[in-house]
Amino acid sequence: MLDRAVSEIAKAKERACELALALIHSDEDYLDHVTELCVLGNRIYSEVWTTEFHIFGVLSSDMDHLPLAHVRPRCSEAMLKRADQEIVEIIAANRSEIQSACNEILSKHSAT
User: Fold this and answer.
1) CA-CA to 20 of 20 to 30 Å: which in 30, 80, 105, 107?
2) What 3-state DSSP class applies to 56?
3) Across 43-71, average pLDDT
4) Which among 71, 74, 81, 58 is positioned nearest to 32, based on CA atoms?
5) pLDDT at residue 28 above 60?
6) How far apart are CA 20 and CA 79, in angstroms?
7) For the residues of 18-63, what is the DSSP string, one character each?
8) Tens of pLDDT along 88-102?
9) Which of 60, 70, 112, 110 is nearest to 90 (CA)?
10) Of 106, 98, 112, which is closest to residue 18 (Cα–Cα)?
């Protein structure tokens, strides 16, 4: 049982590093990546609030009304336009904090 938990945490750390790199290099799938990083941070630490994943918890909460990629096909064009504009504003307001958090994730959890 303990080995399985350790393995799940190792997988979560690996995935967190993949997503951190993706966010450093691109804003594509921003909302989905931020949301998943919050989930992964909770998996690694039980809660994100005093960790390098903190900003992802904050942003996930702030953006929980916006459509994730799998929901977007069911949304109207007008809604998507509003949502995309809001995401652009959130990215601009949080870019440096996201970059710092991503770098810290890579520093703490990268296997190499």
Assistant:
1) 80
2) helix
3) 97
4) 71
5) yes
6) 28
7) HHHHHHHH--TTHHHHHHHHHHHHHHHHS--TTSTTHHHHHHHHHT
8) 999 999 999 999 999
9) 60
10) 106
